[in-house]
Amino acid sequence: MKVPENHFPLSLSPAYLNRKDKFAGADMITFDNVSFAYHSLRGETRAVSHLSFRVEPKSFVSMVGPSGCGKSTILSLIAGILSPQEGEIRYDSEKKPVIGYMLQKDHLFYWRTIWQNCLLGPEIQKTVDENTKTRLAELLKEYGLWEFRDKKPQELSGGMRQRAALIRTLILNPELLLLDEPFSALDFQTRLRVSDDIAHIIREQDKTAILITHDLQEAISLGDRVLVLSSRPARLIRDMPIRLTKSGNDLLSARNAPEFNGYFNMLWEDLKEETDNERNL
């Protein structure tokens, strides 16, 4: 078993320092000592504690951690649905990047066709024009849904609906995609195929993506990096660059890479230790 030598922060990783596509000083998002807690009549529930990390443009970051550790809260903070109570979230540009959010369920409206569902965002923003329709047609053709454009969601497979949900997100031309376990409701075979499709689309479109997943294999095969979070409140316990020697660009090639098992075992031990510590509290 080949164990990767990535026991150091990303900023010190030789693989990171030698990247040809490095954006020095141009991180899209920086979390700087961010904390957040929920409050109710029963008291305070700390969700995120002094969390710091950064995300580069055009990178694909996977985020893993024990159930209930605060991963979805982090995405809500990035999206601006929630605001940090301590610390700061900074963006490289003067304004927050345009963000697309993809959830576990496709949330397509059953009474609208695939074409109409994908145009929902521009309709709400009142930006539907011929250019928008042309771009939508191109996306549907490129990703195998053109002939289903007049079908209702219930007439499509789960994988096709997830692709439609992604196209609905991409039509708004987001700079950053937040993916909250978008493949978890699919069966294993469909999940592999759809996650492969969606990863290809995201990279081809030069998008930045942050993926939440409980599937360590998915995290490694999709991500350029994996952020490992502690039990609630979420703290960063590992920032692992992923460098796989692959024979192809598909996820199966990634999972067959010689480094894959080493990464998997390291992540497994991190999460096992966190879970054990939580049980012993």
Q: How many DSSP H or I helices?
A: 10
Terminal CA distance = 34 Å
Detail the poorly predicted runs. Answer: 1-25
Strand order within the widest sheet? 5-6-7-3-8-9
- Biggest sheet details: 6 strands, mixed
Mean model confidence by pLDDT: 85
Write down the secondary-structure element order: HEEEHEEHHHHEHEHEEHH
Query: What amount of the residues lies in strands?
Result: 15-25%
| Secondary structure: helix percent | 25-40%
Q: How many DSSP E strands? A: 9
Tell me, briefly, the overall form: globular
The chain-level structural class is: alpha/beta
Radius of gyration: 19 Å
Question: What's the layout of helices and strands?
Answer:
Layout: H1 14-17, E1 29-40, E2 43-55, E3 60-64, H2 71-79, E4 86-91, E5 99-102, H3 114-118, H4 120-125, H5 130-142, H6 158-170, E6 176-180, H7 188-204, E7 208-212, H8 216-222, E8 225-229, E9 236-241, H9 251-255, H10 260-280
Parallel strand pairs: 3-7, 3-8, 5-6, 6-7
Antiparallel strand pairs: 1-2, 1-4, 8-9
Helix pairs in contact: 6-7, 8-10
Brief rundown of the structure:
By secondary structure, the chain is α/β, with parallel strands linked by helices. It contains 10 helices and 9 strands.
